[in-house]
Design a protein that fits this description.
- There is one protein chain.
- Helices cover 26% and strands 19% of the residues.
- The protein is α/β, with parallel strands linked by helices and 744 residues long.
- The strands form seven sheets. It has a six-stranded mixed β-sheet with strand order 1-2-3-4-6-9.
- The N terminus is likely disordered.
- It binds beta-D-glucopyranose (BGC).
- The site of beta-D-glucopyranose (BGC) has 7 residues, from loops.
Length: 744
């Protein structure tokens, strides 16, 4: 794959002696400026060679230019670990024995850390795994905004807030790309649910587009310097997003100056002419499976393959777009496959497991903790009863393209058992039977989860054992099967599946020392919230899941995660559902679904706050085993100019007995504005680490950008003069103090 020198040598040998270059051509000179290398390579390529680098040659690779010693490009899923090698033309794994990886926590968990250093660690570490596996492009991270809790793919994204997602995606991209592995930020854009994902045409106003759905992509491109981006499956303006003139030509490449490669989602290309003119650069996963479908070589029949070449040869289209696309792909190859400086990477290194565990530790959210139920007090504890399928079920297999072949995955039960001291028994009972499958593209969990007992029998067993346990911990939530947290389908409702509510209520009655650990990438309904003293949101945590969960339950780590999305009480408390927008309306005599984002900019907490709908757990909420006291927030001035700044400072003290971390959040409100604005919007956050008794300041610098809204009539960001309110707090529904200031 990467035998550059050998390939180059072979190319040279194949040429007649007189043509052997005397000195190394510019495109092969790693010291030469990349644009010179690109132009040099391009000038040497034939028409056919230029077309050949614009489409796949296998499931996950595209061709290089063998004659010039330019290597092929290898992509891989996905955002949470390096996908096992697949067969050349198939989704099925190839059955290698040396491609097991570290599974990192899902991106919802990363977002829940509210710690950009964790995003840097994540990107850097997964980049080393990709590099080791010879992959040049990592298909991730995903930053589609969490619009509805039904979206099957929310677990792969970074929550509902554009500011948080933007701040978290940038270090991920930078850390990853430092390894010479390109980020492929996905799925650009407006792919906010899975149902009808190939046929949904999103309709929304420019305010929502620019204020909510684009900022994280823009930050990834402009601040993170992402080298590639993946078009989404669905449509906008009646054009598929993999060849969408406005989104790709006008916004991404035009307004943002993106110089990287637009890669289609697999099978997201539908039309050669649109692909040529509307910004697609590299086509993957089209209709053919390369074997039973297609004529001679199926990959030649990709939209950007022979059909493109034919149009050029017949004179119907010119070569301007071709050169632009080829330049971008060459640039990507030089940045990745042909950059030897980052070294060779590493797979399954101890440091990678440590990173996965730290990210998990920091992302777990303590939602509720009455009577200081957690951490578990082990003095005098003889028996902990663990109940629930998710205590044992492997979660790294399934869920769609992010499915992994993890070298190991520590279950919550095993993690807890390993962490408790000798003499404490951890007994397990099933509680409920959910999903017993465990296979994805040839990777199997090897678990036999079959249990034929009835729900009543399982509950009776759990309740009987719960009565004489010192603690009862229920592990439930969702899993990676269809209609759960899984690609290509959405959830059927907000409720927990498999009648888990009944099990939880029964256990709450049986034992007051009770905690529920919800494992999911989505908000779930909790009709039993008042019955249960302690609730933990634990996400999909990957290889180190059980260790991270035990760290939190036993208090080895003080929880510091905060929710990156709102947990609504009921589905209709969410704007996408309250407005009747989801999942859109099917057009007559057509496959297309028109999906209008009727809630506009009021996504997530913006909807709840503005409409005054109390959530079950608010955006930004998360408790600690210690207490934090917030002092009064102060501003360094009362007035600010459009090109100036204002600094808000708030002292925070750890008033409890253990060290802890607190995410201090800053929200801005614009009480009077010519266009409607949400009640408040996140514009800053700081994670402070405080020892008992220690005080530190959270300091926020506000610029006019933080006060602006997108004015669709002017097509620009506008900060209007007048009064603004800065609210500082521990969650979007827990504001500790406010400061007013004026924009002059
Ligand atoms: C998914 C992408 C993924 C690609 C390749 C598609 O179905 O939407 O996120 O990267 O497959 O596996």
């Amino acid at each position: 794959m990467k035998k550059l020198t050998i390939l180059a040598l072979a190319a040279a040998i194949a040429l007649p002696m007189s043509a052997v270059p005397k000195k190394r051509p510019v495109y092969l000179d790693p010291e030469a400026p990349i644009e010179q290398r690109v132009e040099d390579a391009l000038s040497r390529m034939t028409l056919e060679e230029k077309v050949r680098i614009l489409h796949a040659q296998s499931k996950f690779s595209s061709a290089g230019v063998p004659r010039l010693g330019i290597p092929e490009l290898w992509t891989t899923d996905g955002p949470h670990g390096i996908r096992p090698e697949v067969l050349w033309d198939e989704w099925d794994q190839a059955g290698w024995t040396n491609d097991s990886c570290v599974a990192f926590p899902a991106l919802t968990c990363l977002a829940a850390t509210w710690n950009p250093d964790m995003a840097d660690l994540y990107g850097r570490t997964i980049g080393e795994e990709a590099r080791y596996r010879g992959k040049d492009v990592l298909l991730g991270p995903g930053v589609n905004i969490y619009r509805t809790p039904l979206n099957g793919r929310n677990f792969e994204y970074m929550g509902e807030d554009p500011y948080l997602a933007a701040k978290m995606v940038v270090p991920y991209v930078q850390g990853l790309q430092d390894n010479g592995v390109a980020a492929c930020v996905k799925h650009y854009a407006l792919n906010n649910n899975e149902v009808n994902r190939h046929t949904t045409n999103v309709i929304l106003d420019d305010r929502a587009l620019y204020e909510i759905y684009l900022p994280a992509f823009k930050a990834a491109v402009q601040d993170g310097g992402a080298w590639s981006i993946m078009g989404a499956y669905n449509l906008y303006n009646d054009e598929h997003l993999c060849h969408n003139r406005r989104m790709l030509n006008d916004i991404l490449k035009g307004e943002w100056g993106f110089d990287g490669v637009v890669i289609s989602d697999w099978g997201g290309t539908h039309d050669t002419r649109q692909a040529i003119t509307n910004g697609l650069d590299l086509e993957f996963g089209s209709w053919t499976n390369g074997l039973s479908a297609g004529t001679r070589n199926a990959y030649d029949n990709y939209y950007l393959a022979k059909p493109y070449l034919d149009l050029i040869k017949s004179g119907e289209v010119g070569t301007e777009e071709l050169d632009d696309k080829a330049r971008r792909v060459l640039r990507l190859i030089f940045r990745t496959a042909m950059d030897s400086r980052p070294g060779y990477g590493a797979l399954c290194a101890d440091e990678h497991y440590d990173a996965a565990r730290r990210i998990g530790d920091e992302g777990i959210v303590l939602l509720k903790n009455d009577n200081a139920t957690l951490p578990l007090k082990l003095d005098g504890t003889k028996k902990i009863l663990v109940v629930g399928e998710n205590a044992v079920k492997m979660m790294t297999v399934g869920g769609g393209s992010s499915s992994l072949k993890a070298q190991h995955e520590i279950s919550p039960l095993d993690g807890l058992r390993a962490a408790v001291p000798a003499g404490v028994e951890v007994e397990y009972v099933r509680g409920y039977v959910g999903d017993v499958t465990g296979e994805y593209n040839g990777v199997t969990t090897g678990q036999d989860l079959k249990d034929d007992r009835s729900a009543d029998e399982l509950i009776a067993e759990a309740v009987a054992k719960a009565k004489d346990a010192d603690y009862v911990i229920f592990f439930g939530g969702l899993n990676k099967s269809d209609h759960q947290d899984c690609e290509d389908s959405d959830r059927a409702g907000l409720e927990l599946p498999y009648d888990q509510d009944r099990v939880i209520s029964a256990l709450a009655k049986a034992n007051p020392n009770f905690a529920v650990v919800n494992i999911s990438g989505n908000a779930v309904a909790m009709p039993w919230v008042k019955e249960v003293p302690a609730i933990v949101q634990a996400w999909f945590l990957g290889s180190e899941a059980g260790n991270s969960i035990a760290d939190i339950l036993l208090g080895k780590v003080n929880p510091s995660g905060k929710l990156p999305m709102t947990f609504p009480v009921a589905l209709n408390d969410n704007g996408a559902h309250a407005t009747g927008s989801y999942p859109g309306v099917k057009r007559d005599n057509s496959d297309i679904w028109d999906l209008e984002y009727k809630e506009g900019i009021l996504v997530g907490y913006r909807w709840h706050d503005t409409k005054k709908i109390k959530p079950l757990f608010a955006f930004g909420h998360g408790l600690s085993y210690t207490d934090f006291a917030y002092g009064k927030a102060t501003a360094d001035a009362t007035d600010m100019t459009a090109d100036g700044t204002i600094t808000i400072t708030v002292p925070v003290t750890n008033t409890g007995k253990v060290a802890g971390e607190e995410v201090v959040q800053l929200y801005i409100s614009d009480p009077k504005s010519s266009l409607p604005r949400p009640a408040k919007e996140l514009k800053g956050f700081k994670k402070l680490s405080l020892k008992p008794g220690e005080t530190a300041n959270a300091v926020f610098t506000i610029t006019a950008d933080d006060l602006s809204f997108f004015d669709p009539a002017k097509h620009e960001w506008v900060a209007e003069k007048g009064k603004f309110v800065a609210s500082v707090g521990a969650a979007s529904d827990d504001i500790k103090s406010t400061v007013n200031f004026n924009l002059k």
